[in-house]
Structure formats: C-alpha cells, structure tokens
Amino acid sequence: MDNGGFCDDNYQSGSSDDELVDISEVTVDFSEDVPPLDRDYSAGKTHKNGIGLHCCTPKLMDLLDDTVPGIGTYEDFNTIDWVREKSKDRDRHREIANKSKQSTVALLFSISDAFSGWLLMLLIGLMSGALAGGIDIAAHWMTDLKEGVCLNGFWFNHEHCCWASNETTFQERDKCPQWKSWAELMVGVSEGPGLYVVNYFMYVCWALLFAFLAVILVRAFAPYACGSGIPEIKTILSGFIIRGYLGKWTLIIKTITLVLAVSSGLSLGKEGPLVHVACCCANILCHFFTKYRRNEAKKREVLSAASAVGVSVAFGAPIGGVLFSLEEVSYYFPLKTLWRSFFAALVAAFTLRSINPFGNSRLVLFYVEFHTPWHLLELIPFVLLGIFGGLWGAFFIRANIAWCRLRKNTSLGHYPVLEVVVVTLLTALLAFPIEYTKMSSSELISELFNDCGLLDSSKLCDYSGNSGGTSGSVNATAANGLGARLAGPGLYTAMWQLALALVLKMVFTVVTFGMKVPSGLFIPSMAVGAIAGRLLGVCMEQLAIRHHERDIFRGWCSPGADCITPGLYAMVGAAACLGGVTRMTVSLVVIMFELTGGLEYIVPLMAAAMTSKWVADALGRESIYEAHIRLNGYPFLEAKEEFRHKTLATDVMRPRRGDPPVSVLTESGMTVEEVERLIADTTYSGFPVVISQQSPRLVGFVLRRDLVISLENARRHQEGVVSMSPILFTECDPPMSPSAPPAVKLRSILDLSPFTVTVHTAMEIVVDIFRKLGLRQCLVIQNGRLLGIITKKDILKHMAQMANRDPDSILFN
C-alpha cells in the first residue's frame, strides 16, 4: 500500500503536538487524531444575518460518490473515524437496497454485494492455508538441512527421506543409508570426534546463513516484516492506519524470512507471524472488493476474521482461532464477523489439512492423544504449573521490555544485523551439544507432549523395566509391574539436559523476541512451559511409584497401567506459560483442547490458565503485546484497563490554562488567504468552526486534510478563485458586491454533529465514549460556547500520568 501525498509543499501535514515514532527502523510522523467527517444532515437552517440573503437549496453530501479525490480518506499514521465509516456503510447498503427494488440488474448486484463477504472469506482461507502449508514444509526441510541432506533428492527432509528405507530399526528410526550427515558427505567420517566437529561447524554455518539472509531481506525490502506483528495488528484493528504494514511486499518478505528465521534455530516460532501473514492476505484481497476497499471499518472486520485464520493454520485450531480473535486482538467484533471468522478458519484448516505438510494427517506437528485419566489431587501440581507460568510471564515481559528499551535507547539499535548474527551464533553454539535445544521448538514440544509407548526410543521413555529403552509402558509380565516404571539412566540424563535447556530457552527467548526478523512468541513460551511441566510430571510419576502404598497415592498406580502421564503435565505447563505471557484464557484452553482432542483434560488446562493469569496480573496487568504497544507509542486505548480517577474534562482538554486560545475557523468572513495562512502556521489536523470570533458558538468541525484538498481543488477548477475569495461554511450566501471574487463553499466537508462534552463531564465517561464509539476527538463546550478539545492522545497521556508513567512516552519514541 503506497502512501501518496495529498498536498503540496506549502501544506504538508504535521503536528507540533505530534511526536516521531520509530517502527521497524522507519521514522514516521503521527498526525494529531483528526475529527470525524460526516454527512451534512442539516436541512434548511435559517440565518438572520441581514436582508438580501440568498439561501441555497440544502444538498446532502453523497458519501458514495467522492466528487473530489481524497475527500473522506485518511493519512498514514492516523486513526479512522468509526462513526463516519459505519454511517457510510449504512448509507451504501440503504441505497443498494432501494435500487434493488427497481430493476433485475440492481437486484443481482444486491445479491452479489451480500455474497461478496463470504467469497472474500473463502479466498482468505484458501490463500492463508496454502501459504501456511508451504511455510511448514519449507521450514521443516531447511531445519533438517542444517544436519545433512537426502541422497534420493535434496528436497526431502530427514523423515521423508527415511520413510521408504527398509534398513531402519525402531531403535534408530532416524538413521538410514539414504540420509547423509555433512561430515559423511564432506570428509567421509561416520563416527568419532571428526563427525561431531564437522557436523557442529556446519550446523552453526547454516544457522548463521539463514539468520543473516532473513535480517538482510527484512531491512532491504520490508522493514515491517520483522517481529510478531500482533501488537501492530491490534493497533490497526483499533482503527489506526499503518500503510504498507499489510502490503504485498510485507507479505512476500515475511513469508520467506519466516521460514529462514525458524530454520536458523533461534528461539522463536512462526505462529504469531502467521497471524500477520493472514492479515496481509486479507488486506490484499480486500482491494478486489469495492465495499471493503473504500471503507476502513469494513476492512477491519475482515482483518479480525483473518486473525482467526492465522491462529487456525498455526495450531490447527479453527475454533480457538475465532476465540483468539475475539478475546485478544479485535477491537470491534460484531456477530456477523463471528460467523465469517468461523467460516474462514474452517476453510483455512481444510486447506492446510489437504496439503498435509507433516505427513501425519494432522494440522500440527505436536498433535497428541492421552488415554490415562488424571486424578483429583493432581490439580495441586497443575496449579503449581499455573503459578510458574504466571511468574514466567511476568518475568519475561519485564525482561524483554527492558531489553527492547535498551536496544532503542543505545547504539545496539543501530546494528540490527550484527545483533541478529551474534544472537544466532550464541544460540547455535550452545544449542548443538544439547539434544533438546538442538531440535526445533515444535519437535521439542512434540517430544515433551508424547505419551511413552511401546516403540518409543527417546531417553524420556527410558525406564528400568524397559528392554533396551524401547518401551515406556508397564511390563505386565514383570513380577512387580510398578517397578517397570522406575527411572532408568537415560531418563536421568534427559532430566538434567531438560533443566539446562529450560534455562537456555528462557534466556534466548528474552533477547530474541523483538529483533529485526519475524519472531513469534507462542512456540518458545509453550516450549518453556512444556519443559517445566515434563520435569514436574516425571518427578510426580516417580514419587507416586516409589510411595504407591501411601494413602495419598493409593489407587493411582496399578499393574498394566501408567500411574501418571508426564506428557499431560507438559501440555498443562505449556498452556500456563503461554497464558502468563499473553494473558489468554478461554481461547488458550480451546486451542490446547483442539491440540489433544480430549475433553477430559479441560479442567487441568482451565485451572492452570486461570492460575497463570491471576499470578501474572498480580505482578503486572499488561500482556506482552500491550507492553510492546506502549513501548512503541501506538495510539491504542485498551478496553480492559479501567479508569478509576475522579478527573473532569476540563482537566484534560486543550488549550490548558496559560496556553493561546484554540485555533478556529468562522462560518463566514474569512478569505482563502487567511485560511491558508492558518493552515501554514498551525499543525493541527482539524479546526472547529464557530459563528464568529466574537461569538464562539460551535457550528461544526472540519478536517485539515479535507480543507487543504478542497482549497486546492477550488483553485484549480473553480473559475475566479483568488486569495481574497471568501470561505463559506453556511447554507446561505451573504450579500456581496458584483465585483467581489466568487466564494468557496465548503459546507459539504463540514461535520455538523461533532461529539461534544461539557467541562464538568467526568473523564471516566469521556474515556468510555472514546472506547465504545472509536472516537478520535471530542469538543468541550459550555452553554454552546467552544472552550477546548480532547483527543485520544490527550486521554492516553492523562491515563499515563495518572498511572505514574511518563506521559511523553505516549505516541512517540
């Protein structure tokens, strides 16, 4: 999406109150929140300004027909007017409905207009599902490429390469003659220290190459492709405009670099960026449908549905995706959007299932099914996992925000390529020696979620009763069936490796999230929780086995059945840590339920998710996404944050005491030169219109952008317009001499019903009005006289000041 300018050099938009913000290395200028432009609903208002007035016939502004290009549109880094956009859509729908009764062609057009929304959802689901399948396949292949290559075809990953081999065993299913490590290919070494050293070197080299390509592509072609994208998506859905953030170049580069970043082995995931990818698809497809291309509010309904699609293809959880969009990212979510989100998520999941990227007929790599019931007393360790998840969430948010602030405020931020390369180098050097950090995060979660079976050769399934470490279930033929579940040497080795992996994952996730590469947070957070959960699950299992005769564990263990399922603890821990970081509850439980396919484990998940949220909220009420929104200075008015202070509109409005009076236009009596001078001397994005300077009775509000465009259009196309031509916002033409230049009539761009409050209105009510109506500003009046203005920025600064935060941190860096 290109941000074309709308005015010449004499009238460049800016704002003295507007600060600069740095988004992905791009310096942009926040324009002051501009007021609504609504249609002229006034009809036949009479002015008694003198004898001889010539009243023109009042004409309603046709919002469906933009006579002047640019009128009614928005600048980059501005907030949309929800009220105006919804009014435009109602007028458009009303006109189509009226015309449909007049002819068959109009009726067919009405039907196609109603069907276009569902067609758009279908296309978004198909496109997002196809891209997600391609990303999964490419990331899996490139991750395995760091370890070796398939001789049958370099395009096969390790698992697919060994599928057709007849020389694999259950103990060594990952080894086959067709798959060669880099050491075997380069130096012909199949064992010994040489094998380890060469493979170590190649692993680090491939990781550095992937990460370097990712950060170079992002910086060169699409700076907006970095990060998770969810904080920006939340801000865009609240009505903010960031042109290019959902454009075609961002989509292309984010898709490519997401594969590279995940394959590099960095502690990040692809699930968050997939939401950004799906929203890019939606934004691009919206341009083919007029009613979505021309209406920013309708477009945001589509983007809300696209957010659900992103989670649907990320986790294979269509219902969880819809709830995620409703609970976490959407600002305006009507019932119609709920239905369409469900349909789009269904189509996306079906498309991904048809592609079958993992070859297991599942939508995700770590799909599991548990068969052992849980015990009531296990709620205690589940709650402990919830406490750990809440503590981890609070720690991660504070540590990551501190690191990101350090990056912004020091020279570290000037070297993003070097930062990515150094972090990748350290990650690869420390990850390779440890089995559980060397594998990808998705494979690690799959390993930790796994319920040990007869054919498992993992160290996590090495129990003393297993022959050769290949069986994780109880040996029913043993004299003591419970002894078969005692931990073996492989399990002890896996435990200390997991403990070390937990520390490394926590540290690397803190420094990785926020770098200039696509980086999701879902999978790293789930990996941290899964490791902690598996450690606790194994401990509980061994405790129950060794003390099975005690009353507390009596009935838990019986020959032929598992006492406790450690994989369930890993799943609960993953949900707890993800909930602590994102503060999701309902959508999180549904996503985890769709991953496991078992209703039986909803109660443990609910207990852990709620405990995690309570603990994390006690230490800090912001989720990681809201914290990054505040860090970047986006104009986001959080609906969850309560305003409990007893202040009034007069305490927040501008101008403040001692400031110059508010700049206004009069409905008549000003010339083109005077208005142009006011525009050039001020940087406000809109001007109140009053009757006169002596009688500041409010008439309406006009946007700076619309005013500039209208004046330029009048100079170009209206004959006789000069600097001394009068500006009229009235319906009636005042008496003028025949030699006077023609007037410029601008009543059609005047909003005659701006939202107003009085000086005594409580700020609690004002904040609610801004949240529920999506306002950008409201005017403060007293007995009809204009006194000041309150913008969204003023409210955000006031709320920051009341919370003992720096108010100058709002809307700028």
From TrEMBL:
Subcellular locations according to the entry: Endosome membrane; Membrane
Topology within the bilayer: Multi-pass membrane protein
Gene3D superfamilies in UniProt: 3.90.1280.20, Clc chloride channel
An annotated GO cellular component: endosome membrane
Signal sequence interval, chain numbering: none
Main location (coarse class): membrane
CBS domain residues: 653-719, 749-807
InterPro entries to which the protein is assigned, alphabetical: CBS_dom (IPR000644), CBS_dom_sf (IPR046342), Cl-channel_core (IPR014743), ClC (IPR001807)
Transmembrane segments: 104-126, 200-225, 246-268, 274-290, 302-326, 376-397, 417-436, 494-515, 521-540
Molecular functions (GO terms): voltage-gated chloride channel activity
Family affiliation: Belongs to the chloride channel (TC 2.A.49) family.
Entry protein name: Chloride channel protein
Organism: Cyprinus carpio
